[in-house]
């Protein structure tokens, strides 16, 4: 089984694809985090997974709306599409986490200049 040249070539090609996607996902995730201002949660693994997911989302969306049969995420055009996809994933995460908008209450008479977490801590301490 392991001495079959076709099997070994298939294993080699699969490992090569995994390494390309991990390396490319890291670059895409880092570029998306560089474009989006502010602090981001997660470390290296989260950045890599966000880049891989952004590659799938961005290139898949581009293939859906154009008549191109295949878009390689390693090309320049594919890199831009993948970065846009990772940016949209990061934006939607921040939108869902509530780090863009601060909720107000009826008795608030000032403009919110601090993050929601700091405001929540202050409200809890006053209670």
TrEMBL record:
InterPro entries: Transgly_assoc
UniProt membrane topology term: Multi-pass membrane protein
Assigned keywords, A-Z: Cell membrane, Membrane, Transmembrane, Transmembrane helix
Taxonomic superkingdom: Bacteria
Primary location class: membrane
Keyword Cell membrane among UniProt keywords: yes
Transmembrane feature ranges: 18-36, 43-65, 71-91
Family affiliation: Belongs to the UPF0410 family.
Name under which the protein is recorded: Transglycosylase associated protein
Organism this protein belongs to: Polystyrenella longa
